[in-house]
From TrEMBL:
Its EC number is 2.1.1.17. GO terms for molecular function: phosphatidylethanolamine N-methyltransferase activity. It comes from the Archaea. This is Phosphatidylethanolamine N-methyltransferase. It is an enzyme of class 2 (transferase). InterPro entries: Methyltransf_11, SAM-dependent_MTases_sf, Thiol_S-MT, UbiE/COQ5_MeTrFase_CS. Keywords: Methyltransferase, S-adenosyl-L-methionine, Transferase, Ubiquinone. GO terms for biological process: methylation.
Length: 198
């Protein structure tokens, strides 16, 4: 269902995110700066992260929405970037085992229908010693903030784009990767987590 919603949103998705860009874009830049070697971005969306990638990475990008991929391709062309784009889901990545040095996920796991399967797939396609970089919005450390802000927001986003702000993505990351870095922003609503495949 999320695919149809994102396909319908298309260009309007960028407009919806404008109020958040001033807070999230610096974090996107920081996350993407950690990419090395052959890199996959899962859930690339409209390609907001593309301009931040180091120029020496071999970049692959996948998203479940054909419309989002069209916009991201146009953005890559405008930036003069070579990116291999794919339409598909993180729960079933069309890549061989041990293929990537880095996998980037930027505000993706809030919409993944089966997040555990998504983590399994990211781990599968990473080389041993490869790094998975997650920038995700998750449930806050503050129960009060969860109650007065995230729960009402969760209902709205769930209806509009099958998005959940209340997931415990960090706990799931710890099950699949050795966590090397965790940074919390905005009372834990957003986390930057770097995990390594042992």
């Amino acid at each position: 269902m999320y695919r149809e919603k994102y396909n319908r949103l298309g260009e309007r998705y960028e407009v919806l995110e404008i109020p958040l860009d001033r807070y999230f874009n610096p974090l996107r830049k920081k996350a993407v700066s950690l990419a090395q070697g052959r890199t996959l971005e899962v859930g690339v969306g409209t390609g907001k992260t593309l301009k931040y990638y180091p120029r020496n990475v071999e970049l692959y990008a996948i998203d479940g929405s054909e419309e989002m991929i069209k916009i991201a391709k146009r953005r890559a062309k405008e930036l003069g970037l070579t990116v291999k784009f794919f339409v598909g889901d993180v729960e079933k990545l069309p890549f061989p085992d041990n293929f990537f040095d880095t996998v980037i996920s930027s505000f993706v796991f809030c919409t993944v229908p089966n997040p555990r399967k998504g983590m399994e797939e990211i781990r599968r396609v990473l080389k041993p010693g490869g790094r998975a970089v997650f920038l995700e919005h998750t449930i806050s450390d503050s129960d009060l903030l969860n109650f007065i802000f995230l729960k009402p927001l969760d209902r709205i986003l769930g209806y509009l784009i099958d998005d959940s702000t209340l997931r415990r993505t960090y706990d799931l990351i710890k099950e699949f990767f050795d966590v090397e870095l965790e940074e919390k922003y905005y009372r834990g609503i957003v986390r930057l987590v770097v995990g390594r495949k042992g």
